[in-house]
Amino acid sequence: MRRFFVRADQVNGDIVTLTGCEAHHISSVLRMRTGQVVEFFDAAGTVYQTEITSLTTRALQGKIIYRFVDRISEQFPLTLAQGILKGKKMDMVVQKATELGVDSLLPVISRYCVAGKNIERRLNRWQRIVTQACKQSGRSVPMTIEPIVRLEELVVTDYSYRLCCWENEKEALLSPDYLCSAGKILLLIGPEGGLHEQEIQRIREMNFYIINLGRHVLRAETASLAAVSIVQYLGRLVATDDKDD
Fold first, then answer.
1. How many whole angstroms separate alpha carbon 4 and alpha carbon 83?
2. By the 8 A CB rule, do 192 and 112 touch?
3. Boundaries of CATH 3.40.1280.10 in the chain?
4. Strand partners, 46
5. pLDDT tens, position by position, 78-118
6. Which residue from 144, 114, 138, 110 is spatially nearest to 126, judged by alpha carbons?
7. Using CA atoms, how far apart are residues 146 and 160, in angstroms rounded to an integer?
8. How wide is the angle at C-alpha 181 spanned by C-alphas 232 and 152, nearest 5°?
9. What are the Cα distances from residue 178, in Å, to 2, 21, 34, 181, 235?
10. For 109-148, how does the pLDDT look when each residue is reduced to its tens digit (9 = 90+)?
11. At the topology level of CATH, where does 3-69 sit?
12. Which one, out of 60, 78, 116, 135, has a CA that is 20 to 30 A from the CA of 14?
């Protein structure tokens, strides 16, 4: 079933009203028709199965026939603190992190970042990518994109677990028993140029556990997605073991 994003102000009782580009996409690109049923999701985790009752190139109206809450409570909500990457590399990280279930993305400016101009425009683009990735993956609560922060201003007090992947760490690997009880995770990945020794020293002072991801040096975007996948897997493994107990 096709899924689309809807804002809270576009839902009034049992009626959904959609205008603008999304309505045009549904009518002119997807060529959907009245009587068809689609799903709308909001940012709070509610899904609305809706029958289209009226559709033009500019507006859609539908009647909600069923609604449900599709919200997963994670024992280990994950924030990806990502050194800002160039162009499409960052776009890919935003997209895949959304698909993988990352709770929030924290864009970080570090010494070797090339953030580029028009950073506000990039933030808007990342938010659109999150919405599109939610549609594709069936995720009902979008990944939150936090305000950009400089590495030296990073606030870590809310996180039970702090991990940093660094290519020059030769020994430490992420152990399966690292996650021992429920808590928020902050995962820090550097930009294309990596993290400077002085930055690593600061990171150690913030009580990060510094690890590597294997014997090969990974591209920044590859490291991000590999690390997210590993951490998510370990978190769910621990959560499953807790249920079995």
1. 30
2. yes
3. 78-244
4. 69
5. 999 999 999 899 999 999 999 999 999 999 999 988 766 67
6. 144
7. 19
8. 70
9. 39, 46, 53, 9, 10
10. 999 887 666 787 889 999 999 999 998 888 888 999 999 9
11. Ribosomal Protein L25; Chain P (2.40.240)
12. 135
| Encoded amino acid at 118, one letter | N
pTM of the model: 0.84
Tell me the C-alpha distance between 204 and 201, whole Å: 5
CATH class of domain segment(s) 78-244: alpha beta
CATH 2.40.240.20 range(s) for the chain read: 3-69
Using the structure block, give the residue that is written with the tokens 């996650």.
179
Closest CA to 166 of 109, 202, 212: 212
